[in-house]
Write a structure and sequence with these properties.
This protein is mainly α. It has one domain (6-471). 74% of the residues lie in helices and 0% in strands. The chain is built from 21 helices and no strands. It has helices at residues 6-9, 24-43, 49-63, 68-102, 105-115, 122-134, 139-157, 161-178, 183-192, 196-225, 254-277, 284-292, 295-311, 318-327, 333-352, 354-365, 369-384, 387-398, 407-420, 430-439, 443-471.
Length: 472
């Protein structure tokens, strides 16, 4: 059984850790000051996280005693590196998700799975739908897409909105926090130098039991203390038995849609398996899988394939497909800027040497690397309400602690950060209010359902990560 405490890991580390630019107390003040400023600007001033991260990065560098020009260089370097790497993947993922939604492929997945479920298995079917839809889509987009289905299914089955809604939200949220190509996991993978294919495989392995515990199992109890009848916002003519044939004259088949959704996953997992089982790097099959499984290539292939399988499969013309793909980009501009600014903030933290200092302290305290990663993400999540900001900040602080960890262990750190980033969504999280309004809940009811579900998801994720840490 491998020892994942810092005392065991750090003696293996090389000399890649950055030498601290100031004394320990000054670096701690700088890091805490920068993080506190980000929290205050987002929470109280309501400033956009993009600007808050810029000010936070500058504060860290200046308080640490660095020259302002050096701080600016660090920030812009990190900004550019992140934008050129993670930014491209987020853009490709958004294009794919838009094709899935506009082609009717997402509707096909929902109707096929839910249509074949009994009243007893509906929560499990909704969890599966949430996970599959959440694989390529951002949480907010998936929620908006699924709400009419959640309303209709709850009304038909004569059950509480919570009974079928919470499992779907668990599937969406778990994919958002644990599985690339979502911005959070992608950012953590990039910062911590994890292997995307291995992280993807382990992420799915952690996500499945996590969704079960926080989705269908928790919903069974949550529906008892919060019984919310489904609203009549969407009637059956809009979804279900009577489809809007004028809007969607045809859809891609369920098999074709699932193939399209899982194609990038299969390509990236293929590369991970090739790296493990084919030791000869000159072997042709290994080289082909390495290229096809590279995240940029895998997602690019998937978008091109989706233009035919989803776009043309739905009867969309070439101009319509082009417009669909193009329209995906404006919606994610804010996310791209926030993630890139997070890269700048990360680079400032790295260049001040705070990671080296934290590594030394953690080594002396013999703290579990996985537990520390989760706790850091939880604290930032509670303070800012943003899973993305929590992932960026926690990953930035963990960079100096990665030396000596194996590929699998590094991926588990990414998943620990991802699990912590979704902990207890409350009033400073936009997702909290989105769920409250869509479900017609009071603040108290939202805390007892959505917020508690997120907490169970986060803790369950950590537990399964720790269990994997025993054997990896």
């Amino acid at each position: 059984m491998p020892d994942l405490s810092f005392a065991a890991v750090l003696p293996l580390a090389g000399t890649d850790l950055v030498e601290p630019v100031a004394s320990g107390w000054q670096l701690v003040v700088a890091a805490l000051g920068g993080i506190a400023l980000i929290v205050a600007l987002i929470t109280f001033v309501k400033l956009n996280p993009f600007l808050a991260l810029i000010f936070g990065g500058l504060t860290v560098g200046i308080v640490a005693g660095e020259n302002v020009n050096d701080v600016l260089t660090s920030f812009t370097t990190g900004f550019g590196t992140t934008a050129s790497g993670v930014g491209i993947l987020i853009a490709l993922g958004a294009m794919f998700a838009k094709l899935l939604a506009d082609s009717g492929g997402a509707d096909q997945i929902v109707d096929t799975i839910v249509g074949n479920a009994t009243v007893r298995t509906l929560p499990w079917a909704m969890a599966a739908v949430g996970a599959i839809i959440g694989l390529p889509m951002f949480f907010e987009i998936g929620l908006v897409l699924l709400m009419p289905v959640i309303y209709l299914v709850a009304r038909r089955a004569q059950v509480s909105l919570i009974a079928v809604g919470i499992p779907a939200l668990a599937g969406l949220s778990a994919m958002h926090g644990l599985v690339p190509p979502h911005p959070g996991p992608l950012t953590a993978i990039d910062y911590l130098g994890a292997d995307l294919g291995v992280t993807l495989a382990l992420g799915v392995l952690v996500a499945v039991p996590t969704v079960i515990v926080s989705g269908p199992v928790f919903a069974k109890y949550a529906a008892r203390w919060v019984d919310v009848p489904p609203p009549t916002t969407f009637d059956a003519a809009q979804r279900g038995d009577q489809h809007d044939d004028e809007k969607n004259p045809q859809r891609p088949s369920f098999a074709i849609t699932i193939f399209s959704v899982l194609l990038p996953v299969a390509l990236m997992l293929g590369k991970a398996l090739a790296d493990i089982f084919i030791e000869d790097e000159t072997q042709l099959l290994r080289q082909i899988l390495d290229v096809l499984g590279t995240p940029l290539v895998a997602l690019l292939i998937s978008v091109i394939v989706a233009m035919f399988t989803l776009g043309r499969g739905a009867g969309m013309s070439v101009p319509q497909i082009s417009k669909c793909v193009e329209s995906a980009l404006p919606a994610i501009a804010g996310i791209l800027l926030i993630v890139a600014a997070g890269g700048g903030f990360k680079q400032v933290l790295v260049d001040t040497g705070i990671g080296t200092l934290l590594a030394d302290w953690a080594s002396a305290a013999n703290i579990s690397v996985l537990l520390l990663a989760w706790v850091l993400a939880v604290l930032i999540r509670l303070a800012t309400g943003s899973a993305t900001v929590a992932t960026i900040t926690a990953s930035s602080l963990m960079i100096g602690l990665m030396d000596g960890l194996s590929t699998g262990e590094t991926s588990l750190v990414v998943l620990a950060v991802g699990s912590g980033s979704v902990f207890f969504s409350h009033v400073n999280d936009a997702g909290f209010w989105l769920v409250k309004e869509y479900f017609g809940l009071s603040v108290g009811q939202t805390l007892k359902t959505w917020s508690l579900m997120e907490t169970i998801l986060s803790v369950s994720g950590l537990v399964f990560v720790l269990l994997l840490g025993i054997v990896i």
